[in-house]
User: What shape does this take?
Amino acid sequence: MIFRKLTLILLILATQIPSCHAHPLDEVLPVRGFTIKAPTHDKLNQFIAFIKNDLVPSHVNTIIIRVDWSYANISHPEFVDGLNLPKEDITKLVEFCKKNKIRLIPLLNLLGHQSQGKKTCPT
Assistant: This one.
């Protein structure tokens, strides 16, 4: 539900640009981005359906995905929060975005930026 509301807001904003009708969308808005938290493993298919049904038709071409501690980090498993995405899920998401010409940009927590949270990993 929240995904559809956010998409609607994005579409409304995109139609408010007066030159949209005179120029291709890529010239007016070369980056049409969306920032969202990474899904959990059990919500991956629903997340991909959201991209397919809402973001692709809205011509979103960039997704900044907030991975935080949600990646199954093989090198440092102590930094995983338990609700992680395995490598196979990440690969599936990346391939889907590539196929639909969407740039996927991961946003990761860095160890030097932990003062902003009340809880830092590892616990």
Remarks:
- Residues 72 and 86 are 5 Å apart (CA to CA).
